[in-house]
Amino acid sequence: MKMKIVRYILLALMLLFCMGACDSARAETITIIDGMNRSVEVPCPPERIVSTTASASELICIFGGMDRIVGRDEYSTFPYDLAEKPVVGSYSKTTNVELALDLQPDVVISDSSMLPETIKQIENAGVPVVVVGMNCELDSIIYNIRVMGEMMGDQKKSEELIGFMQKYTDLIQERTKSLPEDEKPLVYHECKEDKTNAAGTPKDDHVNFAGGINIAHDEAVERPVVSREWVLEKNPDIIIAKLSSSDPDTEEALKLKRDEVISRPGLKDTNAVKNGTVYVYHPFLRRGPRLVGYLLYFAKWSHPELFEDIDPTAVEREMLQKFYGVNPKGTWAYPEI
Questions:
Q1: What is the homologous superfamily of the domain 158-334 according to CATH?
Q2: pTM score, whole prediction
Q3: What backbone torsions phi and psi does residue 73 show, to the nearest 5 degrees?
Q4: How many angstroms separate the Cα of 277 from the Cα of each of 38, 220, 236, 239, 286?
Q5: I want to staple 35 with a disulfide (CB 3.0 to 4.6 A). Which of 23, 124, 131, 251 is the partner?
């Protein structure tokens, strides 16, 4: 009789242990404030994630969530293993709801381009949608890091990443904050051939942040098309152009683009071309936390004497190795200075 009682007690204890283990295995839910200032309840961490914006995809991977991403947008291709994940749309705005829901996600991550009706369809299916900010604005990137770090349950790493970035952005601000206007170079930043950026755009902010003056700052539209005669009249000290996202990140591709820019009629007579201060970068640099390397390049191009001790490429590679866990390849800016 005593042995039976002992067996029942042991069985009860085993059941209680199993129930406790199941409860602890369940993901907790937390409430986060997303980029549209909405309160969204999400699992922490979610087991199955559809990310429709590169802004979030690479951050989820930084926080150890590569295997949790079950669907992505076309632009979520870094870290490189993301390219093997199913695509549910070109980007957030064109998300195919049926494809996304077929992947049985616990949460869908989007940027602000996702249509309200798409968000409603997904949420009506019982799946929360978290909207994140842009991936080329410093404040927005820091916000995204914190939100994704909280959702993935890795606030410690998110603060380490933010600290790494702020170390260098603070350095840029410290070294350029007292520059008089006449020591700031005039910069022509070309986003596409004969198209540039005015006030209110991230690229205008980047030029100013690095201690330069955007020659298109006062134009009436945010992304004006300009003539080469207009550029020559403004006579920039520095010209910055970029490859397209589909171009290879090689020195050859960057050099070809630079050669094309400096050979254009009308630009050949600018101070930038005469002095050899024409630079080209790959958009790989400008996304998410990688923006820190991009801003360091801008600062060194604008004020090489102030940033002689800084190697933007080395900083970028350090960040990729430390936080992304990848051995970086490619050339992202040309020429090196």
A1: Nitrogenase molybdenum iron protein domain (3.40.50.1980)
A2: 0.87
A3: -90, 170
A4: 45, 27, 10, 7, 20
A5: 131
